[in-house]
Write a structure and sequence with these properties.
By secondary structure, this protein is of the alpha/beta class. The chain folds into two domains: 222 residues, Hypothetical protein, domain 2 (Endonuclease III, domain 1), CATH 1.10.340.30; 128 residues, Nucleoside Triphosphate Pyrophosphohydrolase, CATH 3.90.79. It contains 17 helices and nine strands. Strands 6-3-8-7 form a four-stranded mixed β-sheet. The protein is elongated. The structure holds iron/sulfur cluster. Iron/sulfur cluster binds next to helix 10 and helix 14.
């Protein structure tokens, strides 16, 4: 049987796998020390689970990412960061996180803020329903929980915009609950470590992954004092000992984000679980075959013409409808299809404006989850915007006439319109 001393030497060093399903294999792992041990099948026995925990925490202690929301992991901070991190890169989130917290430092200030302020703070992050739900949930927390976030995953899941993953992340990282936070990172690591070959998006995959991680969490709970010493790194018990499960989730998140990568080859040589990972041991060089992903439907492409309507002072913005894509945010008036400049002028006249000049504002694309906008744009100088309200649907349309300062600082304009926003801000003042 492998000794603990051996297993520590193997982590991040070189080992010889003596038996994998009856085969003999050699596996080189970078490092100076050499050791030898039997392959460790993932999480089969209590001792193997403990070994995985020790290796993961040792690795995390030395390699964890320094992230602003980890400095003071209150429920609000964890919640805000997790919502921002959905669909968004860590580096991009850092600045937004700091700006948001400086404007709305706690749940009550978020609940009381004007919605347009919240949207403006979110401008450019995309998936704006996240921000809207964040504020809705803050209002519920204030009205039903006296401004304190609930501390269990099951209670957190009842709040708007908080799903199973986010609830588990908040409950474990901020409140110490033993809840595995199953996101894409954890699912990918699970699929590779256990060589799970069914489609990963299926409910059964999630249930199996949850069982796998709960088994690890339970094993970790039984060696809590030891894990605390690993987290401290010097044999003493660190502050992290009080939050073993939050630390485990963050270690798994970091493992998935920095070693068992979502795009490109995993860095198995630096992985604390390389000696027990079935994909690495049994599918060498083909670890990325897992997880098995569902076949993606091609995105629907929608063509639009964007109008930058401007008079001597202002630019027309249109508040988007309350439901659907980019609901309630501000954009520019749009028509379906790609219009020629002649058609565009007719369209503008049809709205009741008198165009004075038209200029090509270029083409742009924006990719949403299921749809792609393929846009062309025209800047049209008209005699007076205020005379007529834009009304494309036969009903009252929410047109705002904005100066450039308001476009910069007041109205939340999503990144789908970034090209045209920049175009008009760069040109305004120079073309009148
Ligand atoms: S050994 Fe490689 S494939 Fe397996 S969990 Fe580690 S990084 Fe991922």
């Amino acid at each position: 049987m492998t000794t603990e001393r051996n297993s520590r030497a193997i982590s991040g060093t070189e080992c010889r796998v003596t038996s994998v399903d009856g085969e003999k294999k050699d596996r080189g792992i970078s490092g100076e020390n050499r050791a030898e041990e039997s392959v460790v099948l993932p999480a089969e026995t209590e001792e193997k689970k403990r070994r995985m925990i020790r290796r993961l925490l040792t690795w995390y202690h030395e390699n964890r990412r320094i992230l602003p929301w980890r400095d003071d992991p209150t429920p609000y901070h964890v919640w805000l960061s997790e919502i921002m991190l959905q669909q968004t890169r860590v580096e991009a989130v850092k600045e937004y996180y700091a700006r948001f917290l400086s404007a709305l430092p706690d749940i009550s200030s978020l609940a009381a803020a004007p919605e347009d302020q919240v949207m403006k703070l979110w401008e450019g992050l995309g998936y704006y329903s996240r921000a809207r739900n964040l504020q809705k949930a803050a209002k519920v927390v204030c009205s039903e929980y006296q401004g304190r976030m609930p501390e269990t995953a099951s209670a957190l899941r009842k709040l708007p915009g908080i799903g199973a993953y986010t609830a588990a992340a908040i409950a474990s990282i901020a409140c110490g609950e033993p809840e595995p936070a199953l996101d894409g990172n954890l699912m990918r690591v699970f699929a590779r470590v256990t060589r799970y070959e069914e489609e990963i998006s299926q409910r059964a995959a999630r249930e199996t992954a949850e069982e796998f991680y709960r088994g690890l969490f339970t094993a970790a709970g039984k060696i809590r004092q030891e894990t605390a010493r690993i987290s401290a790194g010097d044999g003493t018990v660190s502050g992290q000992s009080s939050n073993l499960y939050g630390t485990l989730n963050q270690a798994l998140m970091d493992l998935g984000a920095t070693v068992c990568l979502p795009n490109g080859a995993p860095v198995c040589g630096a992985c604390p679980w390389s000696a027990c990972c079935m994909a690495h041991l049994q599918l060498p060089g083909r670890e990325t075959d897992l997880p098995k992903m569902p076949v993606k439907k091609p995105r629907k492409i929608q063509q639009y013409t964007v109008f930058l309507l401007q008079d001597a002072d202002r630019i027309a913005l249109r508040r988007r409808p309350p439901k659907g894509l980019l609901a309630g945010l501000f954009g520019f008036p749009m028509a379906e299809g790609h219009l020629t400049d002649r058609e565009a002028l007719e369209y503008v006249r049809g709205l009741g404006f008198s165009p004075i000049r038209i200029e090509d504002a270029g083409a742009a694309r924006h990719i949403f989850t299921h749809v792609e906008w393929d846009m062309v744009g025209y800047a049209v100088r008209v005699d007076e915007l205020a005379k007529i309200r834009y009304d494309s649907n036969g009903g009252e349309d929410d047109i705002i006439l904005a100066g450039t300062d308001e476009i910069r600082g007041r109205y939340p304009i999503p990144s789908a319109f970034r090209h045209y926003r920049e175009w008009i801000l760069n040109r305004t003042g120079g073309w009148q």
